[in-house]
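Input record (Table S2, row 225):
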Amino acid sequence: MVKRGDLKRDRFYKRAKEEGYRSRSAFKLLQIEDKYEVIKEGDVVIDLGAAPGGWSQVAKELVGEKGVVISVDLQRIEKLEGVESIKGDITREKETVSAIREELSPERGGLVDVVLSDASPKLSGNRDYDHFCSYVLSKSALNIASALLRKNGNFVVKIFQGAYYDKFYGDVKAKFRHTRAYSPEASRKRSAEVYVIGKGYKQKMPSSVITASINSKGVKSNAGL
Ligand SMILES: C[S@@+](CC[C@H](N)C(=O)[O-])C[C@H]1O[C@@H](n2cnc3c(N)ncnc32)[C@H](O)[C@@H]1O
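Output record (S-adenosylmethionine complex):
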């Protein structure tokens, strides 16, 4: 449990206030970006578990005027200049993908450049239970990324360490050319969180192609969600 006094003394908390970021988490994404360069100017970026919006602010700065940022959270996100917000539950993967696609311009073929997820469950204090809930959110983020990313797109996802961590890391590794785990300096020392970074999504056919191929074989599948 973080004490209010600790929070006040925390240098990233102070810097977030000074620099106009909505959360100290903004510095985690800045540190990930410094090391791995996942977002570039003009990109379309999806930010899952985005409230109050620190990561979306950083993503918007990185993509610039021509880029697009779409945020999703259970909670309402206060309006951010140049960011589209969706109120929704990322574990409802099909609904989330459809809601995001409605915000994309048609010429993108329903695909995006980057998917981020800093989604966290409400902490219960039971480390195993919290890890499992975090695993469920991370797995949904990976499924959503698999439905939306263009070929060679990038993915950043938070997961709490625990029994399912290795399995999850392997699932990401299977889909991306380069996979790394990273704990940014801005993560609290006592936190079990780690960020898995997948760069270079291996394959993505536009969902229309997948649907056409499924239909022509008369096979029902949820491929591409
Ligand atoms: C650590 S906060 C994200 C902070 C954010 N990256 C920032 O910089 O402001 C985690 C967020 O995950 C969201 N979340 C948890 N479960 C979710 C779910 N099933 N669907 C969507 N968002 C969820 C929470 O509502 C919370 O806002």
